[in-house]
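The protein record reproduced below.
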Amino acid sequence: MNSVTMEPIQMVDLISQYKNIKAEVDQAVIEVMSSAQFIKGPAVKSFEKNLAEYLDCKHVIACANGTDALQIALMALDLKPGDEVILPSFTYVATAEVIGLLGLKPVMVDVEPDSFNITADLIRPAITDKTKVIVPVHLFGQTCDMEAIMSLAKEHNLFVVEDNAQAIGSKYTYPDGSSKSAGCIGHIGTTSFFPSKNLGCYGDGGAMFTNDDQLADKIRMIANHGQAKRYYHSIIGVNSRLDSIQAAILDIKLKRLDTYCEARQTVASNYDEAFADVSEIVTPYRDPKSTHVFHQYTMRIKNGKRDALRQYLADNQIPSNIYYPVPLYKQEAYAQYWDSDAGLEVTELLCNEVLSLPIHTEMKPEVQAYIIKHVKAFFEA
């Protein structure tokens, strides 16, 4: 295999994935089109029910996208302007975006250098009398240490909203051997069905999860213009819904989610084995308390070689990405929330070292071998 003859390498190969389920997807779309029940139709109810069963969670409420899911979750908690919400400093902007939009204060804390996730020990010093919510982000496909975070939240009477946009399908295991699905441990969980996610639709979509009946009722109302009964608006809400076509597609892909996760884990293990003897690569950590579903395969490249490696890969037609190149608190929109004495050294380090390689459910062995060969060649030169 060489760069002249092979097909372009993709970070996520959605075309090949679609081809493998084309007949089912096409039929499902035709059925929705034929029914003309495009909004809140049977396909949405079916998907919500099936996802709730998969997650072993009482309530799944679908919405328009993952950012809406976060916003609606926070709206359901009766927060007041100026209330503080703790979140990791190393995450996608959406986590902080909704906090600012609602007039709340995002309080960013550092993450662990191995898991890239927030921990109870890192959260504790940031708690004040204004803190109301903790938002753990299960980054890149691995669940935070939720037992410790939930214990801390209970101690301080705080809500926990899980940002599970990257880890659907991951399981968190407790010391007694029992387990729960990521996103179903806190008071509310949220996720995104953006096409590149492990469970992605062919447009935009998201959902919220909860085991609390009252919160579920309120979330449904907020997502539907603040109404439980049509034209009777009890609270101020928004308009955020998953359309029936996307729900029908997601229902098909949900049946394969575990298989998709296993395929990603296989790719990740192949990378791990190949790079084990490269001293300047730190391969992804696996927390024994969590399964890792590898939404991203994110390495750390030491000794300042990350950008040179990325350019070398690009020169050989191998895509890669940096999640995330600039910390949230150094973004112009969020600089107002940054205490320069906060000490976020790990986030600074990660923004300079992380690099994500292609990983997806249809990766061919010869494609991965080509990627591995060139990564290793860079360090052997």
Summary: The two ends are 21 Å apart (CA to CA).
